[in-house]
């Protein structure tokens, strides 16, 4: 959607429909141990090897809050420009399931640790503010495995009790693109803060998506449906589109939307009903009597605030002001903490303008093609800086630099080594260049005459021939100067 | 040899320390008593082999550092004991053997005590007569047709019958004090948070508190000292230095102000209870205490409040008994839901089911505000009543129970009348403050009756001191003819 005005409406024969989306993002807190026990949170352990008596709800076991998780939640709250609630309460959410050992999940209901906040998105049509309703801490459940045996369900409690932050947005999102941008922004903020690794394949970040539709211009919200547990941004976008279309079809055929919980079938690209409002669980929330209300000192919040790293929005502003980047460029370079670090590393010793172009164009192309994270880039920042310096000093041309870069991608070698070994150094000796120019002009005397009689377009032809004759190594600037001088004669 | 059946805990501690009697001799004595006590049904599990081995080990090593060095003790079967079956009086935990030891029982073993066995109790501590236990009801040694009270009925019965020199129980709404009153023994419910709840099978988390049950007040001070203490594994545990209740025990209570709450004069209370209460007041006066009439206006709401808060928490606490991880699992059922239904249907008793239903109801959406939230507000008012009174008085004196021990089966079909037995004990749990029941007299039938002292938060020393002074003046005597042997 490369337009400068928001225009994401679903148009039918009769109407134009607006989609209203709110997200409940579940983000796993980065911490060595679980929210209420000392068990490890490491991903990928053998089933039931990271389970304490508390996690498996043995009789008489009691939860004790992990203070580090509290810090992580506060930091995240600060990163979302949100109000930190100095008094919050842990509640029990009661329901029966085989992977929920206690028969209740410890969560926060009426008094979450973080209140309202704001996340700013950069959309092609300008910035968009998305309201955060709240952030609360809760335990994850275990995992039920249904496909190992036809008659039994297996339960793995390694995940049981791991700390999650549930970040609830206001119903401020209006398109799959905005959802994409919002989730990426949240992930970026949490990665900057080191509070959630945002790894969607491992389930560290997943979302419940609330979708409703209304006719363009209408003020009242429609009835919403909640799509549970969507675990990739692509699936979120697909699910929203298909759910919105389902609702519109129902409404246009005179039917009503039932408020319900739905699941997204990624293979069929459609949502299906999981349970209706009548079947909805009554979770019987009440304050967990095993835990005292959580009291936080303002001074503690302040001390965390002081230690907060520079966040994407601040970094973006700095990049624009200090490095004269366009908002688009700055956005791209701050979107991932790894990218911003890479960029800042490169420009320590290299030209900013060249650096940003090389990263955004050449490096990203390679990373995309090879499906690599910036931290696994075959081209190290110092090597890219050295390559850029070779261009600015005139040692090699931009064109040769691309060749060198290709080799760097394959071998990971330093550019100077490649230039030397492959003899790619630019030809900048005027006398040598003059020889080549003269030779090319002699070989093409007919074209010289044409040029001199007014066909100035031929200049490019001569340059091309000269570059060819020098196997691309001729310094283009010098070639131009010499060529023009010779042609005038 | 000294008649160990007449010996208090403190005397036994001293007999062992002075090497007059070995731990093994004492352990054998109690084992012999227990073996002859089948009719009382006060034990669910015994672990004699292990107890004898530990007693022998003790006698060889002779480490007298602990407060309870070499003393054998039986404890309520609600405390999880490592490698010893822990049932909470329920079929659902009939064969549950913990791999861990509750903090409170561990504190006892650290002080040198030796586990004799696990004592019967109402299922998940829900009951006032020990009749809800899956393992059958316990008999009160006072009379073969009498209940010992509950839920720590096995503990009270075993103590009164000299099957253990002292014991520990838990008190959620009176479960230590009421059985103490029914058996002529001393029972203390400490301040909420003084004894760790870690490893105690939970009934109602915001009310549950472990406490000592002993033959006299000195023993009570000693046992409280041994079992209490801060525990970082319990978030509601109070972080404070351990007190030396025993050493600081004093019967000087001159000048203390004792409040008499008018709201505890309930309708249809037997005259004997009223007489007993007056006797207590007179004794306190004679000891130099000042008697003050006080009012705890929200007392009448305490029982209904309790019967909302406690079942609500219980309904959630007992959700973990689902047959998935440990404990009983029904063999019937085609899917997960049926497995839950059959497991819990088959293995929970009627009283537990009743409270789970009540608790689930009061927490349900649409009822939460009217019941649970309202109850929490009333709870606060009850606490405020006490706070206000303790600005003027040091302690409050009330009867422990509205009657003496009732007959087995007398109230089993009338839950409300059973619940009414907790009327004097419940407010204290709601307020989280300490209270003690001491034997103060007998009714016409010769059944013991208790008086209850209540003090402010963490005033355990004061409560023990007043109790000691009263105990001395009351000079309660009880002879039990060991009819069951």
Outline of the structure:
With 489 residues, chain A is α+β, with helices and mostly antiparallel strands.
Using brief descriptors, characterize the structure shown.
heterodimer; A: 489 residues; alpha+beta; Arc Repressor Mutant, subunit A; 3 domains; nine-stranded mixed sheet; 15 helices; 19% strand; elongated; B: Amidase signature (AS) enzymes; three-stranded mixed sheet; 11 strands; globular
Explain what the structure shows.
The complex is a heterodimer of chains A (489) and B (485). With 489 residues, chain A is α+β, with helices and mostly antiparallel strands. Chain A folds into three domains: 9-304, no CATH class; 311-422, no CATH class; 430-488, Arc Repressor Mutant, subunit A. Chain A is 39% helix and 19% strand. Chain A has 15 helices and 16 strands. Chain A has helices at 67-79, 176-193, 233-252, 298-306, 312-323, 327-334, 337-346, 352-370, 381-392, 398-411, 415-422, 430-443, 445-452, 458-469, 476-488, and strands spanning 9-11, 16-28, 87-88, 91-94, 104-107, 117-123, 126-139, 143-145, 154-156, 163-169, 205-215, 225-230, 260-265, 270-276, 286-287, 294-295. In chain A, strands 1, 2, 6, 7, 10, 11, 12, 13 and 14 form a nine-stranded mixed sheet that branches. Chain A has a three-stranded antiparallel sheet with strand order 5-4-15, with no helix packed on it. A two-stranded antiparallel sheet of chain A has the order 3-16. In chain A, a hairpin with a 4-residue loop joins strand 1 and strand 2. The longest helix of chain A has 20 residues, at 233-252. The radius of gyration of chain A is 30 Å and the shape is elongated. In chain B, helix 8 (271-286) links the parallel strand 7 and strand 8 (290-294). Chain B is globular, with a radius of gyration of 21 Å. With 485 residues, chain B is an alpha/beta fold. The longest helix of chain B is centred in the last third of the chain and has 21 residues, at 369-389. In chain B, the strands form two sheets. Chain B has an eight-stranded mixed sheet, with helices on both faces. In chain B, helix 2 packs antiparallel against helix 3 and helix 9 (302-317) packs across helix 12. In chain B, 36% of the residues lie in helices and 13% in strands. Chain B has a domain at 4-255: Amidase signature (AS) enzymes. Chain A binds chain B through residues 53, 56-65, 92, 94, 96-98, 101-104, 153, 155, 282, 284-286, 289-292, and chain B through 80, 86, 88, 93, 96, 98-100, 102, 197-202, 204-206, 232-236, 312-313, 315-316, 318-320, 322, 324-326, 336-337, 340, 360, 363-365, 368, 372.
């Amino acid at each position: 959607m490369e337009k400068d005005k928001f225009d994401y409406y679903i148009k039918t024969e009769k109407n134009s429909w607006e989609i209203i989306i709110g997200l409940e993002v579940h983000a796993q807190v980065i911490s060595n141990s679980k929210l209420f026990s000392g068990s490890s949170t490491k991903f990928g352990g053998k089933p039931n090897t990271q389970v304490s008596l508390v996690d498996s709800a043995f009789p008489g076991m009691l939860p004790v809050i992990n203070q580090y998780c509290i810090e992580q939640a506060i930091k995240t709250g600060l990163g979302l420009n949100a109000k930190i609630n100095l008094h919050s309460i842990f509640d029990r959410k009661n329901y029966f399931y085989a992977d929920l050992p206690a028969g209740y999940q410890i969560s926060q209901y009426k008094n979450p640790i973080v209140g309202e906040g704001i996340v700013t998105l950069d959309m092609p049509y300008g910035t968009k503010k998305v309201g955060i309703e709240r952030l609360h801490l809760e335990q994850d459940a275990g995992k039920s495995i249904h496909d190992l045996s036809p008659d039994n369900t297996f339960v793995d409690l390694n995940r049981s009790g791991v700390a999650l932050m549930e970040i609830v947005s206001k119903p401020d999102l209006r398109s799959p693109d905005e959802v994409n941008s919002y989730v990426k922004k949240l992930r970026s903020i949490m990665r900057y803060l080191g509070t959630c690794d945002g790894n969607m394949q491992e389930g560290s970040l997943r979302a419940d998506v609330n979708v409703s539709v209304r006719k363009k211009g209408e003020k009242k919200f429609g009835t919403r449906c909640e799509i549970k547990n969507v675990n990739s941004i692509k699936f979120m976008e697909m699910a929203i589109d298909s759910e919105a279309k389902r609702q519109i079809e129902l409404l246009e055929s005179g039917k009503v939307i039932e408020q319900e919980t739905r699941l997204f079938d990624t293979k069929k690209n459609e949502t299906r009903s999981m349970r209706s409002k009548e079947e909805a669980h009554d979770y019987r929330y009440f304050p967990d009597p095993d835990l005292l209300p959580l009291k936080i000192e303002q001074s503690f919040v302040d001390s965390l605030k002081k230690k907060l790293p520079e966040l994407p929005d601040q970094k973006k502003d700095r990049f624009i002001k200090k490095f004269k980047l366009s908002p688009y460029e700055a956005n791209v370079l701050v979107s991932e903490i790894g990218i911003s670090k890479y960029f800042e590393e490169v420009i320590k010793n290299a030209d900013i303008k060249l650096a940003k172009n090389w990263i955004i164009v050449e490096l990203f192309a390679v990373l995309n093609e090879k499906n690599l994270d910036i931290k696994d880039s075959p081209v190290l920042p110092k090597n890219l800086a050295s390559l850029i310096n070779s261009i600015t000093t005139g040692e090699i041309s931009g064109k040769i630099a691309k060749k060198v870069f290709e080799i760097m991608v394959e071998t990971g070698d330093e550019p100077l080594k490649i230039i030397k070994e492959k003899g790619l150094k630019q030809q900048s000796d005027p006398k040598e260049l003059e020889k080549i120019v003269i030779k090319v002009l002699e070989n093409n005397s007919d074209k010289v005459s044409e040029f001199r009689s007014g066909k100035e377009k031929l200049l490019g032809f001569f340059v091309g021939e000269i570059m060819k004759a020098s196997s691309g190594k001729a310094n283009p600037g010098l070639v131009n100067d010499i060529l023009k001088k010779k042609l005038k004669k | 040899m000294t008649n160990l059946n007449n010996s208090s805990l403190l005397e036994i501690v001293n007999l062992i320390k002075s090497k007059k009697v070995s731990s093994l001799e004492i352990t054998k004595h109690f084992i012999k008593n227990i073996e002859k006590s089948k009719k009382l049904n006060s034990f669910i599990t015994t672990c004699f082999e292990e107890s004898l081995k530990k007693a022998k080990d003790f006698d060889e090593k002779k480490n007298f550092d602990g407060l309870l060095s070499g003393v054998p003790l039986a404890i309520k079967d609600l405390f999880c004991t490592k490698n010893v079956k822990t049932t909470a009086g329920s079929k659902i935990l009939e064969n549950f053997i913990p791999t861990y030891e509750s903090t409170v029982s561990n504190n006892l073993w650290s002080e040198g005590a030796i586990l004799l066995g696990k004592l019967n109790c109402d299922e998940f501590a829900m009951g006032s007569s020990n009749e809800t236990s899956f393992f059958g009801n316990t008999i009160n040694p006072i009379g073969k047709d009498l209940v010992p009270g509950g839920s720590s009925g096995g503990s009270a019965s075993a103590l009164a019958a000299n099957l253990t020199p002292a014991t520990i129980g838990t008190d959620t709404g009176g479960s230590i004090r009421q059985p103490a009153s029914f058996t002529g023994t001393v029972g203390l419910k400490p301040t909420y948070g003084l004894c760790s709840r870690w490893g105690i099978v939970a009934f109602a988390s915001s009310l549950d508190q472990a406490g000592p049950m002993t033959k006299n007040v000195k023993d009570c001070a000693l046992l409280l000292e041994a079992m209490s203490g801060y525990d970082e594994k319990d978030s509601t545990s109070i972080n404070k230095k351990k007190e030396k209740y025993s050493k600081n025990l004093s019967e000087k209570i001159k000048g203390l102000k004792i409040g008499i709450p008018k709201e505890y004069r309930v309708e249809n209370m037997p005259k004997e209870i009223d007489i007993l209460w007056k006797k207590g007041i007179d004794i306190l006066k004679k000891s130099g205490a000042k008697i003050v009439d006080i009012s705890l206006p929200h007392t009448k709401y305490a029982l209904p409040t309790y019967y909302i808060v406690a079942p609500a928490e219980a309904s959630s606490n007992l959700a973990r008994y689902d047959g998935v991880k440990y404990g009983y699992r029904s063999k019937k059922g085609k899917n997960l839901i049926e497995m839950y239904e059959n497991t819990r249907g088959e293995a929970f008793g009627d009283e537990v089911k009743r409270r789970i239903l009540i608790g689930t109801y009061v927490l349900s959406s649409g009822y939460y505000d009217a019941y649970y939230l309202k109850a929490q507000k009333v709870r606060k008012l009850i606490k405020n009543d006490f706070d206000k009174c303790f600005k003027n008085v040091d302690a409050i004196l009330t009867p422990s129970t509205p009657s003496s021990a009732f007959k087995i089966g007398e109230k089993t079909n009338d839950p409300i009348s059973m619940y009414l037995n907790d009327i004097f004990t419940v407010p204290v749990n709601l307020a989280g403050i300490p209270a003690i029941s001491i034997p103060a007299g007998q009714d016409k039938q010769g059944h013991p009756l208790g008086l209850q002292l209540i003090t402010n938060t963490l005033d355990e020393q004061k409560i023990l001191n007043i109790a000691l002074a009263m105990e001395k003046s009351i000079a309660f005597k009880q002879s039990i003819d060991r009819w069951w042997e």
